[in-house]
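Data availability (excerpt). The following record was deposited with the supplementary files.
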Amino acid sequence: MSANENVAPKKVIEKCQSKYKDHYQTEPPSRNTIGDIAKFEANGTIENRKYKRKPTVVTPENIEKVKSVMTETQNTSTRRASAMLNISKTSVLRAIKKIGLFPYKIRILQQLKDFDYGLRLQYRYKLLNNFDIALKTFFSDESWVHLSGYINRQNTRDWRMKGEGPTKFLECPLHSEKIGVWCAMSSDRIIGPIFFENAINSEKYIDILQQFYNLLTPEEKNYYFQQDNAPAHTSRATKPHLQNFFESKVWKYPPRSPDLTPLDFYLWGHLKELVYRKNPQTIPELKQSIITAIQEIPQETIKRVFNNMKKRAEACISANGGHFEHILH
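Predicted structure:
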């Protein structure tokens, strides 16, 4: 047996056992014992020899090739780059790590129209110049929450042995039951949820405003109020009630700008994430999950959200009114 072998071949061990049995007329040592003796004679120890794996070296030439391909196309997969450059996928990944590239996911944002940029800039300057007022403003909005919830298939896996196939599935109705949720958020607290079942018209919105106003403290009744330009919010029937409740202290934020208001860039996403973890099965369960999720948001978090709103205003100005989430730090 050569000194480089860790374990004696199976046929050698079996031949040794046969000769031992014939010579001594007794049961031979076990295969493991014979293997250990062979390893000791070869290596001076019965421990398996530890081999040092030769590290994979990525040449500077290959690094430059990978850098050229990945930075020029920006959406090429590592598998495709490996085939294009005739370099192993492992080497491509090592080169990417050395270069410092990171596979960011593409963001899907609401398309802005030409006149939106100026409106967004105007709004951001107003917010920054009056940020003390913004801290004393209730930002309001509504959203639909579906009973069927949402499954992120990118991050959800059902681990099984190869060949078994997936066994878990989620049944979703063609038209999922849903509940409308209206909330108002200041730097101090969140008021709501106020639920609704059908699309909001002027009559329903006036009723929501009345419920909201009744929940305000005497100090909060002097706060500013912000809403979007939805027809029910700006109708002829609604305006007198807004004037009665808030006088002239009503802000309107620009259209197609969910990245600028705390309910859109924070509350709705956070709320739905918490609610769907509990997997509610009925509308009453869904409502209770929404109420609980809102109540569990700490005040410190709300204050951080408003500080983040200020950073977003500055980033929006840096982007000249365009999309800015990619430059937030």
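Summary of structural features: Residues 116-327 form a domain with the Nucleotidyltransferase; domain 5 fold (CATH 3.30.420.10).
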